[in-house]
């Protein structure tokens, strides 16, 4: 009898703890019935900013004029807080470099460790700072792996379909009709890791993204859902025959230099291969290249697929300019690679100097 009572006690303790976690309610929150619904972002603190929307294969502003995002990724807000670099001056520096968009990569592990309420406060700060400089934001659920199988490249990327859906429901509720928050990148880099994460299936992936978009659109139609292709967000070929069956969608690609290795590494061959894998989609739908960049083989954090001698930069910019493709370079951080800056004095690296010059010439 004693064992039965102890087992029952353990069962109810575990069950109660699970319910607390599921409802995001602390053990001391006994008056749970008085918890208010989450508040939306206070738009009164922002200056007017045009909504960016999809029209055909282009992005357009409120006047209907064509618009291209050109900007930088930063490190995750929670990482920058830990390193005392989460501040408005970071956004001011990026504005001086010439960006009109900043991508915020939010890792699932960081979202959980920081906690929803505290993380939303960080995103709120990003919205205010970005808006002050007429910069837009891409919110990126930064996971790598094949979500339907629940298999990922590293523990920092582990999430679930339910957590991913709940994240986007939370974000869409919070930032409804806030033009500064322009793009929701549903999942950073879908990949089956060469079979190590199962077998990626486009129709399965398409159906999941459509479910997420339905949740987003139930809260906010003035935002652009962004859907990534396979092979670490590189391959968009399935889109040509089976696009996402929802309006207002754009597609993401991460065409790092070593994604293609033509026998003759000239511009014509790279253009042909890039067109085949992702560029042709731009004739029908908007593309936002949300990661690109390079580092020399002896540079900080050199790894496949980002190693290059620098010839990649001018080629990829010319390719995207010819096809009216938006882009966001990776990454404005001295640790994550390929890095744009050597230090927190914002000393540009080789690729940083290149992209800074391109941005400031726009």
TrEMBL record:
| A single MF term (Gene Ontology) | beta-glucosidase activity
User: What is an example of a Pfam family matching this protein?
Assistant: Cellulase
Which parts of the sequence belong to the Glycoside hydrolase family domain? 60-333
The source's domain of life comes to: Bacteria
Q: Which GO terms describe its biological process?
A: glucan catabolic process
> InterPro entries from the entry?
GH, Glyco_hydro_5, Glycosyl_hydrolase_5
Give the signal peptide range: 1-27
Keyword list (alphabetical) reads: Glycosidase, Hydrolase, Signal
GO CC field: cell surface; extracellular region
Similarity-based family? Belongs to the glycosyl hydrolase 5 (cellulase A) family.
Q: What is this protein called?
A: Glycoside hydrolase family 5 protein
Give the species. Answer: Brumicola blandensis
State the organism's lineage. Bacteria, Pseudomonadati, Pseudomonadota, Gammaproteobacteria, Alteromonadales
């Amino acid at each position: 009898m004693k064992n039965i009572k102890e087992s029952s006690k353990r069962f109810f303790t575990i069950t109660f703890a699970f319910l607390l976690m599921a409802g995001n309610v602390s053990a001391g929150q006994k008056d749970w019935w008085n918890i208010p619904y989450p508040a939306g972002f206070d738009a009164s603190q922002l200056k007017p900013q045009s909504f960016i929307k999809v029209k055909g294969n282009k992005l357009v502003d409120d006047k209907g004029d064509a618009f291209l995002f050109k900007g930088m990724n930063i490190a995750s807000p929670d990482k920058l807080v830990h390193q005392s670099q989460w501040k408005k001056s970071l956004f001011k520096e990026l504005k001086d470099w010439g960006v009109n968009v900043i991508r915020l990569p939010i890792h699932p592990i960081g979202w959980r460790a920081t906690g929803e309420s505290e993380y939303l406060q960080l995103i709120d700060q990003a919205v205010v700072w970005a808006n002050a400089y007429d910069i837009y934001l891409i919110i990126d659920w930064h996971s790598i792996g094949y979500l339907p199988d629940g298999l990922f490249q590293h523990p920092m990327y582990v999430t679930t379909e339910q957590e991913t859906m709940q994240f986007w429901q939370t974000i869409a509720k919070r930032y409804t009709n806030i033009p500064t928050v322009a793009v929701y990148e549903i999942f950073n880099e879908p990949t089956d890791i060469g079979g190590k994460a199962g077998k990626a299936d486009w129709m399965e992936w398409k159906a999941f993204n459509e479910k997420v978009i339905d949740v987003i659109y139930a809260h906010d139609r003035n935002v652009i859902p962004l859907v990534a292709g396979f092979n670490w967000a590189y391959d968009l070929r399935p889109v040509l025959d089976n696009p996402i069956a929802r309006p207002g969608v754009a597609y993401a690609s991460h065409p790092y230099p070593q994604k293609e290795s033509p026998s003759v590494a000239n511009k014509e061959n790279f253009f042909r291969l890039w067109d085949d894998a992702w560029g042709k989609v731009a004739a029908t739908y908007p593309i936002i290249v949300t990661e690109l960049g390079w580092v020399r083989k002896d540079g900080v954090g050199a790894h496949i697929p980002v190693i290059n001698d620098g010839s990649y930069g001018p080629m990829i910019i010319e390719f995207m300019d010819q096809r009216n493709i938006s882009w966001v370079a990776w990454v404005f951080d001295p640790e994550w690679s390929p890095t744009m800056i050597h230090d927190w004095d914002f000393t540009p690296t080789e690729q940083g100097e290149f992209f800074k010059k391109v941005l400031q010439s726009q």
